[in-house]
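Retro notes
What went well: the complex prediction finally ran end to end.
Inputs used:
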Amino acid sequence: MEPVTIFLNGREVNGRPGMTILELAQQEGVYIPTLCHEPQLVSPGAACPSIGACRICIVEEERTGALLTACTVFITPGMEISTDSPRVLERRRSIIELMLASHPDSCLVCDKGNRCQLRRIAAELGVGRLGFQKVPQTATIKENNPFIKRDLSKCILCAKCIRVCQDLVVEGAVDYFRRGFATRPATFGDGPLEESECTFCGTCVALCPTGALMEAEPAYRGTTANVIRTTCPFCGCGCGLYVEVKDGRVVRTIPDKEDPVTRGTLCVKGSYGYDFIYSPDRLTAPLVKVDGEFREVSWDEALSLIAGEFNRIKAEHGGESLAVFGSSKCTNEENYLLQQFARCVLGTNNIDNGSRLYGAAGLHGSPETGGFFSTNSPLTALEEAEVILVIGADPTASAPLVGYAIKRTARCREAKLILVDPRETRLSLFAELQLRPRVGTDLALLNGLCKVVLDEDLADESVDREAADFAAFAESLAPYTPSHIEEVTGVSHQELRHAARLFAGAKRAAIVYGNGITQQVNGTGALKALSNLVLLTGNRAAVYALQKESNSQGACDMGALPDFLPGYYPVTDREARRRFRDYWGSLPGTPGLTFPETLREAKAGRIKGLYIVGEDPVSSFPDAGYVREALSAVGFLVVQDLFLTETAKLASVVLPAAGFAEKDGTFTNFEGRVNRLRKAVEPPGQSLPDWQILLHLAASMGHPLPYTSPREVREEIEKLVPLYAGIGYGTLEEPAPESGAPERGAGEAAVYRKHPGGTPRLAPVLNGAGPPKPHEAYPFVLLTGSNLYHFGGGTRTSRAPRLRKFSAAAYVSISEADARRLAVSEGDRVRIVSPAGEAAAVVKTTDTLPEGLVFMPFAIAVNPVSQLFSIVLDPERKSLLNKAVNVRIERIGSDG
Amino acid sequence: MYEELRAEVARLGLTDVEVDFTGCHGFCEQGGLVVVEPEGIFYTHVGVADAREIVDAHLRQGKPVERLFYRDPVSRQAVPRYHEINFYKKQQRIILRNCGRINPEKIDHYIANGGYQALRKVLLEMTPEQVIEEVKKSGLRGRGGAGFPTGRKWEFGRNVCADKKYVICNADEGDPGAFMDRSVLEADPHAVIEGLIIAGYAIGADEGFVYVRAEYPLAVKRIRVALEQARARGFLGKDILGSGFNFEVQMKEGAGAFVCGEETALIASIESRRGMPRPRPPYPVQSGLEGRPTTINNVKTLASVPVIIERGADWFASIGSEKSKGTTVLALSGNIANSGLVEVPMGTSLSTIIFDIGGGILNRKRLKAVQTGGPSGGCIPARIPHTPVDYETLTMVGSIMGSGGMVVMDEDTCMVEVARYFLSFTQAESCGKCAPCRLGTKQMLEILTRITQGKGREGDIDTLFTLARTVKETSLCGLGQTCPNPVLSTLHYFRDEYEVHIKEKKCPASKWQRLPRRPLRK
Ligand SMILES: Cc1cc2nc3c(=O)[nH]c(=O)nc-3n(C[C@H](O)[C@H](O)[C@H](O)COP(=O)(O)O)c2cc1C
Ligand code: SF4
Ligand code: SF4
Ligand code: SF4
Ligand code: FES
């Protein structure tokens, strides 16, 4: 393309066609002030490159004397632009004066301080005394939430909050309200945020140029010089964020605007949940239990105690009597070290990781059956889809950034969303079509979709209809006629057909699935069926397997699994073992125990020593009583964590670990993107990063591992794990030197790891069980799911003060019809009884559930829902089935 | 009254008489109007009881009812015939050609008066390029305010490549006191629809919209009826008149904001978003409704098109002034004898309009100023009475043609109050998006209010200038860019009046007078 030549302040400069004056000026290092321009708020393909609301970026076209807004006007050849003519400066001053005239005089006490862009630009323009009369905007809103406080008398109506809320996170909580001078951003009905659609994602606060939107409970009110780019520690989206550090403490997080997943947004946990690292519950020294009481000890003492015990057990009972449980919240480097520690130091394959709980751990293996049916595209590709199928997931709660992307694509790109969910969720509003199958009938439904695709000849031409397996496959679908599906799933044959046609008709489709599928009976079957659907429609769909935790993906990639080495080499594969042996020394070749199996063996007295790193199974697993019993039966339990969790309380030795902002490493998110975690502050007391503890422990056991930093571990991973080879993983940019200089934007923050290969084939999957039979004693089906404000077992979120304040008591949602039948109403307390146990909760009635189905979210500060489940393993994947259970509901205190 | 006329005709068994209603005649001052054709006898201020008398005396006995004749406000003489009345005599009705002459709910009346002939000609005999050429040659300019040459606008529209294009008729008419578009839509909706179809053909659009103020229920109804009839007669739909041209029109009711008349806000409103302007370029003709090239024209612009086609560009271009061709419809109001709608050739002088057609100033007062162009227009002082009303001249004297509002003000009028009044409207109607308009108009309004209350300060005039320039030069859309006009023009022509207010704390106009509040939007 021909460059466009213009004159900028008298100098001839070249730009690309389609560049705005502002972009060209930035390229040339010419400063133009802006207040409302925000590149990431421009949806691709939008007619206008910016909103043009504040008008502060005006420049003068010297040939015509026209004043143009630099952020909205594209360059054209021959333009003569002055960015600082007297007229430009005078007009800019007037605009700023107008803004200040309707602004309170509270700059000196405003928490926005030097971060205020209005103040900064006023200073640059030398606006001092006001020429205009004060015309205050009145806008105080009583807000009652711990996250966001609004003072709209400081609003300059840049509309960033409106745009981000409408177009980027698509919650639609705030919009323009009123006209004329009274115009302002407001919620529907102009009420407080907590009564609106607001999810407190905090994005608007991060973008607001003035003090109009502020944190309600800021940790620090001023400006910080030290800003470090790192990764959110909560869910599998792996948001890129900056932590602001003041006096050695993290005081704020800000979303990264350049990060392709984050795009300047976060969710409530990323924005306001980081402060768990300052919980008073943080462990600061190693603890050893003596006579049932914990006693603080030195590292040397703790390490030599553990080393001695582990060595003794290994010598006396063999490696099989030891087990390790790694964490989907720990870094790749730590999980890599941990499995190496288990295999080479302890001599056992009894290693597993926390994602076992959500089914992720079981998804890997046998590519020939489509076992590698996992994420195959970056999230950005989702936004190009014409049809999106979401099944077994409520990403608006469990993977908010994926939720935003789906909503954006449905709302702004008019993609068609097919939602498969028995419940109405926040996505339902965006769905072209929602199928609401009975719980546990996903597999039948998917087979039904495949059947329609075949019968209506919608299959892609690439499908080899002559192949032997095709015939077998087609044959296997014979029973799944639409009428049969209607009977089994409750989804009408019209809807089924509509969905199949929509999906098969899309040139670009995307599938998002979550543990709604993987945590269910025959979840593997459902995944295969999903894979069949993708193959039938030309194998083009972008697939997204949501991951619960920040490093669910990485922990598995790194081989914190009983049956796989790093990179999914089966431990039974002699060739692969030889590869690793060259680096690590000898390693065991028989598959080890999954964590639930470890619990079973522990209960039977066959596990003598157990090392749990960064997991709290007593809180997060079903049937806490059983877990507690099993763990208590382990002779020597070591727990390494940030807090004295319920699990840690059972331990013989507790080791204090560093939190996400206190260490270096990498997380792999659900897309396979490897994100850099950077140390921003020192860990409290004597606590240490998990990787360091591991190195110390291995050395204490007389088996030092040859690394001194996460980087050295990364370099080895890059060499040994093809998934991470050749992507620049080893050399991901290093932490800042001791100087503590700001790291904003320095170096690569992330790389994409390769997607595993494997050629899935069409394969019949049969649905053994019919529809789940109603159980007389337990007439309801209880479904569990994520809660946006809480996370996993709640270990961290319940210790984040703001999230905790905002959390509701344990509740169960019941359809209005069922509530009537049970004679309970909103706010009543009920007892929920399952074959495994019981739990108490408060009733919320809703019209989002069909009759017979009740919903209870996971991970409230106290998490009673797990009492209702027992530990049942999916036979094939050995993952836990804790998505749905049959229950009955009883009123507590029936006299009301 | 209409019912009464019919009943009376029926009662007396008059068979050679047809009673029908028409759209507005434009002569508001004169109350209920009855015209007896073909003589053209014109009755004014007709009440229900009078109706009976007209039927009985005039229609049955052939004796016109002199009591109800129109009386010239100046000479006090009775003028029985429509065409002899000064108010009508000096007008030239092109846009309003059918207003008051046909029943707007009967397509046959329209057709009988030559309607849809132009469409037939265009579709069967002309290429789109020829249509554009004809409109260009006629010199027709947009009647929505800015006066952009319509033929050129269409040419842009035609030349953009796209698989789909739209044309929109802008019938938002949000100016307070303006009712020209309403009159046309209520009295002659088919003319607008015919113009819209021709525009669609010329540009290559197959879909059109009429965006009409929801506060015009009668216009809404008339458009709906007209669209149905046009569809039934095959003027809309597939393969119109066998030409192969397809065109459909939908009506959208406006969201009730002045700013929705601005093109990009109008588009947003049709797309069910808040009616807010966006920066241009890209212009709607490049990227408009749903991102597609979109051409927007005013009601009167479109209503002019069929006549141009029918009677030829040269005929049209022979009317009006050098650069402003054809006629303009003005809504005369204020301190004037004959208020109402008038249509005059472009370039007609202010004095002709005010004194000859308008019948002069009420109560024998003297003319002080004329405000033209709606709330964002300027004030022209009485000392330049021969100013021709056309785009160039009005702009030159600091006002605008705008939508055709014309408020006549007598010697008692306070010019600061005039500026304040118009600004209070635009301030309230500012969409709030951009800072200079939202904040600057408020600031100006505060100062003007202060001055009219006798609390003006030294320096207020300079501040007003600064603010007015800032708002004018830096606002995003036409609303902000033009709303300082009343302030700037009164400052220019009546600066002394401001100074007296500020220095002497009194109003030099004979009394503190507030302008009558004309209907605003709720
Ligand atoms: C604030 C504002 C309000 C407007 N209101 C109207 C209106 O009510 N009717 C109208 O036809 N044009 C209105 N316009 C002008 C239109 O934006 C546009 O220029 C016009 O419809 C184009 O048609 P034309 O070329 O036939 O004049 C308005 C413009 C602005 C800036
Ligand atoms: S609250 Fe802040 S972000 Fe929102 S419009 Fe006002 S200044 Fe902009
Ligand atoms: S916090 Fe998020 S959801 Fe709430 S108003 Fe701001 S952008 Fe919208
Ligand atoms: S000039 Fe006024 S009406 Fe136009 S965009 Fe700006 S605020 Fe809105
Ligand atoms: S930055 Fe360009 S208009 Fe606000």
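What we learned: Chain A is about 25% helix and 20% strand.
What to try next: split runs per interface for comparison.
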